[in-house]
Amino acid sequence: MIALNINGQSHNVDVAADMPLLWVLRDVLALTGTKFGCGIAQCGACTVHLDGSPIRSCVLPVGSIGERRITTIEGVGSTAVGSRVQRAWLDSEVVQCGYCQSGQIMSAVALLTTTANPDDADINAAMAGNICRCGTYVRIRTAIKQAAKGS
Amino acid sequence: MSQASSRSINGVRNPRRAFLQASVAAGAALLLGFRLPLAAATSPKGGDPFAPNAFIRIDRHGGVTLIMPQVEMGQGVYTAVAMILAEELDVEWGQVRLEAAPPNDKLYGNPTFGIQVTGNSNSIRAFWTPLRKAGASARAILIEAAARRWKVDSGTCRAENSEVIHTASGRKLAYAALIDDAANIPPPKEPLLKSPADFKTIGKPLKRLDTPDKVNGKVIYGIDVMPPGLKFATLAACPVFGGKVGHVNDTKAKQVPGVHRVLALEDFVTVVGDHMWAAKQGLAALDVSWDEGPNAKVNSATVWKELREASEKPGVVAKAAGDAAKALREGKSLDAAYEMPFLAHATMEPMNCTVHVRADACEVWVGIQVLTRAQAIAAKVTGLPLEKVTVHNFLIGGGFGRRLEVDMVEKAVRIAKQVDGPVKVVWTREEDIQHDIYRPVYRDLLSASLANGRISGWTHRITGSSIMARWLPPAFQKGIDIDAIDSAADMPYDIPNLRVEYTRVEPPAVPTGFWRGVGPNNNVFAIESFIDELANKAGKDPVTFRRDMLGKNPRLRAAVDLAASKAGWGSALPVGHGRGIAAQVAFGSFIATVIEVEVDDQGEVSLKRIVSAVDTGIVVNPDTVVAQLQGGLIFGLTAALYGEITIDKGRVQQSNFHNYRMLRIDQVPNIEVHLIKSGEAPGGIGETGTTAGPPALGNAIYAATGVRLRRLPIDRIALAVGKSA
What we know:
CATH topology of the largest domain in chain A: Ubiquitin-like (UB roll)
Structural class of chain A: alpha+beta
Number of domains of chain B: 3
CATH superfamily of the largest domain in chain A: Beta-grasp domain
Low-confidence stretches of chain B: 1-45
Number of strands of chain B: 30
Shape of chain B: globular
Oligomer: heterodimer
Distance between the termini of chain B: 59 Å
CATH architecture of the largest domain in chain A: Roll
Largest interface: A-B, 57 and 63 residues
Radius of gyration of chain A: 15 Å
Low-confidence stretches of chain A: none
Helix content of chain A: 25-40%
CATH class of the largest domain in chain A: Alpha Beta
């Protein structure tokens, strides 16, 4: 059994240590807000936080996490920055199909947690790992700046 | 309620919770799935709701349910369709809840296609009048019901915010109080539609109804369904198109913890396990040899050789005016060939489908643009009658035409037939890209002559796959594919002598299908690039050259003027920068786009600024139109900058986002979209940005470098060495 702390709750999962966190979240714990996009850390759809830092859960072996706290899109709204980002996403009407947006929001929250007032270069650096096929990038940039202002 | 169920979303009811509740209620077999029985959902105390037509239900508590005939894949159609219905029905926007239509071509078929399909940027165009009539008819019935109650003439009453008001006395009756009376009143033969001047909802930038659950992880896409007892599968088709499974040794695969089954099903192998990881690991451990079949020698060179040869022969004439051949002989002429590559769709939600096959029924969970086709293929594969196949449709994590196909449903049902209980089949990204149904390769041969600074003669021969011939055969008649010539046969410039031809050539091995922008994504690129070449040959400014030939097309000319003005057309740019314009009439919208680029010494292209001017007729939700243009432009520019699927030994060579690249946020500048006010009928919008981007980009690159690129994606080597491609 592997013990995990996800969104403040303890979970014990009976899976192989090399199983990526993504599949533990989605298929074992039914936390399906975290998305499968590529499986090789190229698209960012699976982004979650480990102790607040963004990581690609599709390539993170669950056995390597230890006691670090996992935050997913289902839990990020309970943080001040998380709820501000979610609100900014809706205010700026960022979302189209929405499939990548869990990952986009997780990356944006991590950025704003460490950089309260990011400039365009900060946004580029933090968000370039997250692909959006609907092309919502212009509004993601707007929403991040709006969320920063709301702090 | 039909056998096939629907699912509701709104701001109050949480789809995940609803799903879980339904799951619990139905027990392990999940017979009900997402079906939220109407009585429980909207009419808790019993009694029929007022249901004047297939799109509207009003319950006795005033709840208004609008049935969505079209699927939501990010284009905002749920909100726009609801706005049209709410406008004519005069209901309070906050009271509206949505429910996805069940599979039923007769009730919910797209008026353009005759079947339930969401595509071709036509949801608003096709449903604009039918939905307005549906809303207006229901409103007229409710007004009549109130008038009878008050014993006044219905002409003295009006509707507002889910109430009927007797104007003179100020008396009011809520719709909810009228539904029993309304049930006995026949609908008017020709319901009176509102004048656009009286629109209260249409034209406002309302917040989308589908997005709140998309920012908190609660939204359920097809890939997220978790019926009890679910198993997980992933698959690998023969890497060579058309090949079959040869020998399979599953010893190692079956040793992977969590693997339950290994199946070889003629053209693909699949591993079923406790979760996707077990299935993936099992598939990786599977020792398979393939019977590659006749396509194992197909490569991109053979595809292009066949296409180019075919394109040199005359095609079927799709449009002819004047004498194009004579005009070409007499004028100063120019010839060019434009070429477009195969493209994958790469929707962010990879292909997937969940199926539960039982002896007497089949249940399917999927996000699909063609609901009834999903039901039909499941019935065909299982041998069950249609009414025994339940399809739950979901919000879609990217369509772009890929989910106009049902191959992922067909494969999942074949797997589910071998599995006890429900099985979720998820394609890896590699499988998704290597077994897509691809945007075809095209070759466009263009010739034109100039006289007095204008085009006097024009011929355009389009050569490529006919998707319609396979997908909707009646749309392929006498050798003409109406999609393949779209925006070419009806090109917007005033040219006296014109001939447009089409030649159908199916590429060897590679399956072809619709891609965002469909026919126009090829034609607008070829035409607008060539128009730029002709402007240069005529020695005229590209904007002036276009304007001068748009005298009969004032809507497009106004868009050209606005885009040029907003983009500062003609103002000085730094060295290495260039501006390009493209104008188009596509999907019933009139759009001009100016792109500014910088090209560096290595041939790398940076997008600096993008400006679009759009006349799409009456706008339902302006913010959605802007969003679709922004996103569509990025989609088209991604393809122009990077998109190409190549074939070697019958196999697709690209596999994931590292070698099938996408534009990312750091490469995308601000995108300004300017809407032009119009009282014309609404145009389509979802694909217009995609067709607009590539030619404006190519023309900007030419302006920056003097290099004309006639193939996509762009050739950076040609730009670096400064030679014409």
